[in-house]
Design a protein that fits this description.
Radius of gyration: 22 Å
Distance between the termini: 44 Å
Order of helices and strands: HHHHHHH
Length: about 190
């Protein structure tokens, strides 16, 4: 049995929200992998990325409702950071397992696709970039699965922290407006009665 104080903790709430967000982020990774094979996968990935703020807002709004508008901005922000922390851990685990056991040459394939794209573009800058990436392959400097996974983890954590800051401000602002509207409505009802 979990006590109410623990249930209201932003760490606990973030950990609980991190599970579905981690699965959501794993879906984003799946579409990232499919981008080179299925044309619509890049559009689906873009849609999932665009909807991430809505997903995070929904978790924060649920907290605000549950706590009857008594949630602090810092609590919501910490909840968002914890959500991204746990979500990123889940997504990183999925990414690592996929690269290690399903497609070990995925990163090398991504670099080769980038080289092909750069070579197809006009201009010297793209040709130089393609040469640098080819030297990276030749010297064996392609990132390992763990390096790639950790880079993804830190990218999602840093962007998630900023996104949580913005989303927490919006959720707090909406909660205050609703609270003020509710107070005004109750005062108006008290006057008319």
């Amino acid at each position: 049995h979990i006590d109410l104080k623990k249930q209201d903790s932003p760490y606990y709430l973030g950990a609980r929200a991190g599970i579905p967000v981690g699965l959501y982020m794993s879906g984003m990774f799946a579409f990232f992998v499919l981008m080179t094979r299925v044309n619509i996968a890049s559009f689906a990935l873009l849609c999932l990325m665009a909807c991430m703020p809505v997903v995070i807002y929904a978790t924060m709004r649920s907290t605000v409702r549950r706590q009857k508008g008594q949630t602090t901005f810092s609590g919501l922000w910490m909840q968002g950071i914890m959500t991204f922390l746990f979500g990123s851990v889940i997504c990183s685990l999925v990414t690592m397992l996929y690269i290690k056991f399903v497609e070990p040459d995925m990163i090398l394939g991504l670099v080769r696709n980038c080289i092909a794209s750069c070579e197809a573009m006009p201009g010297n800058d793209y040709a130089e970039t393609a040469q640098i990436m080819q030297r990276m392959i030749d010297s064996g400097a392609v990132p390992s699965a763990s390096s790639f996974t950790m880079s993804m983890f830190w990218l999602s954590m840093s962007t998630g922290s900023v996104l949580s800051l913005i989303t927490a401000a919006i959720a707090q602002s909406v909660a205050r407006r609703r609270s003020l509207a509710g107070q005004m409505a109750s005062r108006t009802n008290g006057i008319t009665e």
